[in-house]
């Protein structure tokens, strides 16, 4: 309107200019809205990688690796285990963070199944540390020594080190004086395609007297909302994201269905049952499931997973269950009923094909690690966009685009 006064013309011209200025104003409002959105939500790209299990399987080294790690763990005399037993064989998505001033870059797993951040240190002498990016405290002006010894026992590896403190950046989010682990000894991490792990679970399972990075960002007002969300691409190595501070609705269809968290240690929810072809095949009396971005598979109690495998006509083959590749076209979906809503998992998702052989993504053994809880990993989360709401202690699920 002000511009119309500056340019002389007829009333018709002023009217058309007014319309033009309104359209221009609307475009600016849309642009400002996008800027506001980008300021509220920090979206970090994740890269889908080949899991260590897949790499070892292709080289026919999987069974010998599992036997070697079982021997290593049996010799472990550490009584310190601040995390549940985790299996990094099946981690499939990594993103980049920086630590220190000037920043040192690391590829990490954004893991909802743990609550700690750790990376290798330059003082680590293990072979695994030599093949990954390692943090050098002497090169950071903002580093603070904590020195407290820490130890983590995983399902397929061991981490020992000490605590440090420094500035950590996730995209344009800054977490000052962030406690994190620095490894001195790493066992079983030699071939993994990531440097460290960034935990996003609840602080009750974090290192003692430390504040997890998400809680640190929240307390410093870096997040407009205390939520984070994952979109995991189905087939492409690119396109996956983790977002902090809000939800980008372009990544899912329909409405989010909210499920309350049943225990504020892990992102654990209640599940009604698991069915195939209308028949309950697992979790017959209700059960619990941990929603876990730190594994690509689905874990459950051995007996119940065996029942699912029987219906697939899957046969044990070394450490996995082999399935006919033709079954992908004929098997029904496995349906997870959560909070009264069905979440189907099609056979294209729960059967993986490597070269000319196919295998099931269901794994037994959760009773020895997770008190018979089910673990819903990336196979499930590729189908369903997931929102983790810390303030309201709930998880939102909706079909991914």
TrEMBL record:
Disulfide bond recorded as keyword: yes
Membrane-spanning intervals of the chain: none
Assigned protein family: Belongs to the peptidase A1 family.
Primary localization: secreted
Record's keyword terms, sorted: Aspartyl protease, Disulfide bond, Hydrolase, Protease, Secreted, Signal
GO terms, molecular function: aspartic-type endopeptidase activity
Domain Peptidase A1 positions: 93-398
Localization per record: Secreted, Extracellular space
Pfam family, one: Asp
Highest taxon, organism lineage: Eukaryota
Protein name, as recorded: Peptidase A1 domain-containing protein
Keyword Oxidoreductase (UniProt): no
Gene3D superfamilies: 6.10.140.60, Acid Proteases
GO cellular component: extracellular region
Record-linked PROSITE patterns: ASP_PROTEASE, PEPTIDASE_A1
Active site: 111, 292
One GO biological process term: proteolysis
Annotated S-S bridges: 124-129, 283-287, 325-358
């Amino acid at each position: 309107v002000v511009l119309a006064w500056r340019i002389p013309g007829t009333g018709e011209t002023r009217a058309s200019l007014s319309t033009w200025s309104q359209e221009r104003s609307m475009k600016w409002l849309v642009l400002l809205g996008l800027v506001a959105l980008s300021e509220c939500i920090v979206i970090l790209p994740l890269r889908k990688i080949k899991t260590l299990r897949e790499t070892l399987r292709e080289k026919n080294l999987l069974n010998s690796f599992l036997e070697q790690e079982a021997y290593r763990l049996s010799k472990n005399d550490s009584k310190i285990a601040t995390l549940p037993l985790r299996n990094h064989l099946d981690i499939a998505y990594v993103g980049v963070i920086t630590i220190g001033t000037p920043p040192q870059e690391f590829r990490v797993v954004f893991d909802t199944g743990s609550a700690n951040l750790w990376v290798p240190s330059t003082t680590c002498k293990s072979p695994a540390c030599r093949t990954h990016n390692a943090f050098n405290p002497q090169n950071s002006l903002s580093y603070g020594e904590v020195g407290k010894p820490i130890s983590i026992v995983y399902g397929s590896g061991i981490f020992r080190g000490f605590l440090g403190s420094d500035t950590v950046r996730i995209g344009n989010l800054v977490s000052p004086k962030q406690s994190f682990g620095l490894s001195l000894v790493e066992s079983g991490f030699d071939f993994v395609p990531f440097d460290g792990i960034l935990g996003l679970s609840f602080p009750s399972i974090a290192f003692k007297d430390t504040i997890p990075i998400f809680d640190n960002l929240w307390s410093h007002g870096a997040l407009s909302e205390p939520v984070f969300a994952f979109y995991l691409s189905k087939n492409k190595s690119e396109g996956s994201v983790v977002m902090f501070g809000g939800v980008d609705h372009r990544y899912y269809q329909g409405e989010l269905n909210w499920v309350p968290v049943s225990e504020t240690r892990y992102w654990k929810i209640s599940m009604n049952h698991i069915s195939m072809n209308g028949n309950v095949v697992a979790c017959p009396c209700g059960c619990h499931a941990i929603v876990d971005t730190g594994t690509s598979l689905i874990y459950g109690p051995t007996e119940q997973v065996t029942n699912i495998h029987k219906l697939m006509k899957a046969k044990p083959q070394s450490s996995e269950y082999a399935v006919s590749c033709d079954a992908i076209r004929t098997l029904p979906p496995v349906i997870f009923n959560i909070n009264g809503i069905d979440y189907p998992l099609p056979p294209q998702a729960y059967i993986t094909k490597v070269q000319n052989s196919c295998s099931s993504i269901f794994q037994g053994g959760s009773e020895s690690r997770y008190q018979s809880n089910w673990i819903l990993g990336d196979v499930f989360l590729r189908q369903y966009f997931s929102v983790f709401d810390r303030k309201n202690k709930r998880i939102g699920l909706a079909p991914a685009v």
